[in-house]
Write a structure and sequence with these properties.
elongated
Length: about 160
């Protein structure tokens, strides 16, 4: 343990010296043959780099907003499923538009519901989502809904086999 403590103290001292040198750091390293000014990490950001970062930030914000809206719409569909306003087949058809362009969604679906056709996998996904949203909040509403949704899922699976 003692060598580790010595190493930590030494690294702390070196960091303090580096901070203490401040503007002298570049001059000291230049004399030693090391120039931080020529390193890519030390180069100031070019205006074009800043523009690219701002554009990437905008794209990420737009994608975040699309994902937030998609999740809200799927939550709404889940509630409608539980209360019986919509059938499982209708919900799966509507959900398609909300998940179609989600990166990685198809991969996760194929892993989570192996062998299921897309419509059946979406139906299973919606049942799972409805359970996550409603089972703990109102079990008296969820359990009858689960039975109904499982029957609808069985019917949907039979339709896909034909």
């Amino acid at each position: 343990m003692r060598p580790l403590a010595s190493l930590l103290v030494l690294s702390g001292v070196l960091a303090a010296v580096a901070v203490g040198l401040g503007g002298e750091w570049s001059r000291v390293n230049t004399r030693a043959g090391v120039s931080l000014a020529s390193s890519p990490a030390a180069a100031p950001a070019q205006p074009s780099d800043l523009t690219v970062l701002q554009q990437q930030d905008q794209l990420l914000e737009q994608e975040k907003e699309r994902l937030r809206r998609s999740c809200a719409a799927l939550d709404h569909l889940s509630v409608r499923l539980v209360v019986g306003d919509i059938t499982l087949a209708e919900a799966a058809a509507l959900a398609e538009a909300f998940v179609r362009h989600r990166p990685g969604f198809d991969t996760v679906m194929s892993w989570q519901y192996p062998g299921a056709v897309r419509r059946v996998a979406l139906a299973q996904f919606l049942i799972q989502r409805a359970e996550a949203r409603c089972a703990d909040q109102d079990p008296s509403l969820w359990y009858p809904a689960r039975l109904r949704l499982e029957q609808e899922l069985a019917t949907l699976q039979q339709q896909e086999l034909q």
